[in-house]
Write a structure and sequence with these properties.
Distance between the termini: 69 Å
CATH topology of the largest domain: D-Maltodextrin-Binding Protein, domain 2
Structural class: alpha/beta
Shape: globular
Strand content: 15-25%
Radius of gyration: 23 Å
Largest sheet: 5 strands, mixed
Helix content: 40-55%
CATH class of the largest domain: Alpha Beta
Number of strands: 12
Order of helices and strands: HEHHEHEHEEHEHEHEHEEEHHE
Number of domains: 2
């Protein structure tokens, strides 16, 4: 006949095992592997997340860091995050749809740098920009975007003249063929994107006198099915913001681009975004 004492001992053993499993639970962070190579933007994003995870080991314990080798547009990544499939962490420009679909860690990892945009243009169209002083002047020209970018939505809501491409590379080909007049790219994107395509698309350049200011921020987004990971990354980013690590990483990856952009000597055209 089974006595009460052995039953209590078994329950205590199971309780201890459960506690041990909880102590040694391993957070599994799943991100997309960049299919076009690890440029500095991807290295920067990965290092931000990696450091946030490392800094929270004392509180949260070990982690696994996995990259998923799947071709995803931002739109498909949004669907994957929403469903909790394939990836559970993604860095994106803040937007209503991302904020509703995933948990936003509202600490800007690029410290507002994303808000400043340089214009990639065809060199034969340079004279079109000489007298552009205002947003109304700019709207006499046509912008080009990839369909599912956050900035595309900004231009649509501002009723700006624009066209869209289904693919990233298609956008550059369209600009080379002068299907539109310009595409606004972040400071940390413009020069590298031109440099890697200079042999195939030699007629593209950065417009030398203008820049746009469009209030946008870059957040880490975590699937709502992974609340512990969201809590962990938020804790790590708060530490990095407080100790200056986020600013140091920005300088590490983008200092040369910031100098080259020379914003102090450009005409800045500001977008006033309406509250959603």
């Amino acid at each position: 006949m089974l006595t009460i004492k052995p039953i209590i001992q078994v329950l205590l053993l199971l309780s201890c095992l459960g506690a041990a499993l909880n102590v040694y639970a391993v957070d599994e962070i799943k991100l997309l592997k960049p299919l076009l190579g690890m440029d500095k933007r991807e290295r920067h994003k990965d290092e931000v997340i990696f450091r946030a995870l490392e800094m929270t080991i004392p509180e949260f314990g070990p982690y696994l860091y996995k990259t998923i080798n799947v071709d995803m547009t931002p739109g498909r990544a949004l669907i994957s995050i929403r469903r909790g499939e394939l990836i559970n962490t993604y860095i994106a420009a803040s937007s209503d749809i991302w904020d509703k679909s995933a948990t936003a860690i509202k600490i800007p990892i690029r410290r507002g740098l994303m808000s400043y945009r340089l214009l990639l243009i065809h060199k034969d169209n340079l004279d079109k920009f000489e007298n552009v002083q205002t947003l109304e002047d700019l709207n006499m020209l046509t912008a080009g975007f990839q369909r599912d970018w956050a900035i595309t939505d900004v231009f649509e809501k501002a009723n700006m003249n624009m066209v869209t491409s289904h693919t990233f590379e298609g956008l550059f080909s369209m600009l080379e063929k002068r299907r539109f007049d310009y595409t606004p790219r972040a400071i940390y994107e413009a020069y590298d994107e031109l440099n890697t395509r200079k042999d195939k698309l030699p007629n593209l350049m950065v417009e030398p006198n203008l820049a746009l200011y469009i209030p946008l921020v870059t957040y880490v987004y975590v699937s709502k099915s992974a609340p512990r990971i969201a809590q962990r990354i938020e804790a790590g980013l708060k530490k990095m913001s407080a100790n200056g690590d986020l600013d140091k990483l920005l300088d590490k990856y983008y200092e040369e681009d910031i100098k080259k952009a020379d914003l102090a000597n450009r005409r800045i055209i500001e977008f006033q975004l309406q509250d959603q």
